[in-house]
User: Which sequence fits this backbone?
């Protein structure tokens, strides 16, 4: 159920903050989160992301989370840059905040474009992000494909903190498919294991999307169980090395995301991941090409020596 | 905090107007939310107006949803109403303390602390949600989804830190056709309950208004009954069961 406003900002619209008078020019709509819409905006010749909400309290809860995260990592570039209200022509006020613009693609599009070879690393980086968040005292809550942005070389950013919840409280926002309560696998209390469960479903969604969605249609609500999800972990070659890991996450067995990340890393470098067949053939082809080149080079050198064309130091 | 959630798919046709009943609820401090359940291709445009009006009179929200959106909607609506209720109480305080009309009227840098209080109270305040389910014939194929939504709501409420209870009622009463029947008294755990709602086709009447009045009365009994019984035993407080 969306409670966000119906406000639509056309490209070119200039927003002026009611309190701080900052001016932001709307470039385009980037996406829609639980508590509002996110636009790409230009301010002082730089690009930022602007989230405009319909409800000041909902948006402020999100800002509170971002603030307390910011106070914990001072050295990194600030994520939250300004908070203000926008007064629309019709007199209605919309709260907004300005954050760093993260260039990247949503997770599934990134993997489709760049290839599944990136999956182990991207997964590892995402686990690192979750661990960082948990160590700051929060659970992300609404982890799903759309909320994970991947930038160059598999760098990961979480976007839309609308579901972020202080540990021990009830998860503020979630998506049924990724919710462990929906799968009869545990409570909706914000714990590290809650996010890890969603992470595991996310992995299944990436490679076994059709079978996963099929489960939601065929199983009766009372019959849904983590066992059904665990059965999906061994089918796809990209998931197979991580099948054991995914099963542990789905059963809530990792004590923390940090521990989960460490276990993931061991699989990544422990020889569990075999390069995809396609890549191996590419490698063979490349090696062949390299050999040909070397033969051609050797032939050229022999010819040059016989013709006396090499500099004196070499001959 | 007290909420009445009405789940229906048609217009009331017997007895008192449900809009009047909703206004009664609001006067008693009970927020009324309404969900209209529609199946694909089904139109209940006539009921839509009534659903909206009931919610408006009851100070709550209304939504039309498909059966597969029901769980999520029940959960979100309950949560949202908790926040709104707290917010209204906090706004009253703000007027006295800051002279500001609402959270929105505060400058952004002063909202943070107030919202933190709202979030905290929203988690920890005691909550009672009475679900009133229309089980007239057209609702019959939707009752499995309703029951799932109720179980899902209990799961969400269990993760709140404050005491959270639900009670479930259905209408019409098959005995006399007027009013409602209590299926589940105030509880915070329904793990042992196999079936919450009856699966029999009910008679065609939809006495939404009278059923709501009975639920309001149930809330009142819960309050007064406990206090009076407590006083008679020489005890006070609400904890006496």
Assistant:
């Amino acid at each position: 159920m969306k409670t966000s406003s119906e406000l639509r900002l056309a490209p070119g619209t200039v927003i002026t903050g009611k309190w701080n008078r900052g001016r932001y020019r709307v470039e385009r709509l980037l996406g829609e989160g639980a508590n509002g819409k996110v636009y790409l905006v230009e301010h002082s010749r730089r690009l930022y992301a602007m989230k405009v909400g319909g409800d000041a309290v909902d948006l402020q809860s999100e800002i509170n989370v971002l603030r307390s995260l910011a106070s914990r990592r001072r050295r990194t570039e600030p994520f939250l840059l300004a908070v203000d209200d926008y007064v629309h022509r019709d007199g209605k006020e919309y709260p907004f905040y300005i954050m760093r613009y993260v260039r990247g693609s949503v997770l599934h599009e990134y993997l489709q474009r760049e290839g599944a070879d990136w999956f182990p690393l991207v997964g590892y980086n995402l686990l690192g992000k979750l661990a960082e968040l948990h160590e700051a005292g929060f659970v992300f809550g609404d982890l799903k494909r759309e909320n994970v942005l991947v930038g160059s070389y598999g760098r990961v950013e979480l976007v839309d903190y609308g579901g972020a919840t202080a540990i021990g409280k009830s998860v503020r926002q979630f998506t049924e498919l990724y919710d462990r309560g929906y799968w009869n696998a545990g409570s909706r209390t914000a714990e590290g294991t809650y996010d890890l469960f969603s992470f595991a479903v996310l992995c299944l969604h990436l490679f076994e999307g059709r079978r996963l969605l099929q489960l939601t249609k065929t199983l009766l609500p009372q019959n849904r169980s983590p066992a059904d999800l665990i059965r999906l972990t061994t089918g796809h070659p990209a998931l197979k090395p991580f099948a054991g890991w995914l099963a542990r996450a789905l059963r809530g067995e990792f004590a923390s995301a940090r521990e989960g990340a460490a276990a993931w890393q061991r699989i990544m470098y422990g020889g569990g991941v075999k390069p995809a067949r396609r890549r191996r053939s590419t490698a063979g082809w490349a090696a062949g090409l390299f050999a040909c080149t070397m033969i051609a080079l050797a032939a050229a050198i022999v010819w040059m020596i016989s013709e006396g064309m090499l500099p004196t130091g070499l001959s | 905090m007290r909420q009445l959630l009405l789940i229906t798919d048609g217009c009331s046709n017997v007895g008192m107007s449900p809009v009047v009943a909703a206004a009664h609820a609001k006067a008693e401090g009970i927020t009324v939310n309404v969900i209209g359940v529609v199946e694909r291709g089904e139109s209940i445009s006539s009921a839509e107006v009534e659903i909206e009006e009931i919610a408006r009179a009851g100070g709550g929200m209304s939504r039309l949803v498909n059966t597969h959106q029901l769980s999520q909607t029940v959960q979100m609506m309950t949560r949202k109403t908790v926040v709104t209720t707290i917010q209204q109480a906090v706004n009253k305080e703000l007027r006295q303390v800051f002279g500001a009309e609402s959270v929105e009227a505060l400058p952004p840098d002063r909202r943070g602390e107030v919202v933190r209080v709202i979030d905290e109270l929203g988690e920890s305040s005691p909550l009672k949600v009475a679900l009133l389910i229309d089980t007239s014939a057209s609702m019959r194929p939707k009752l499995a989804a309703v029951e799932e939504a109720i179980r899902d709501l209990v799961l969400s409420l269990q993760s709140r830190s404050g005491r959270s209870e639900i009670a479930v009622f259905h209408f019409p009463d098959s005995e006399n056709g007027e009013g409602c029947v209590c299926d589940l008294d105030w509880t915070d755990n329904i793990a042992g309950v196999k079936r919450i709602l009856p699966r029999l086709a009910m008679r065609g009447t939809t006495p939404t208004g009278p059923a709501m009045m009975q639920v309001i009365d149930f809330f009142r009994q819960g309050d007064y009954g406990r206090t009076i019984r407590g006083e008679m035993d020489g005890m006070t407080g609400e904890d006496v069961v």
The first strand of chain A starts at residue 14 and ends at 16.
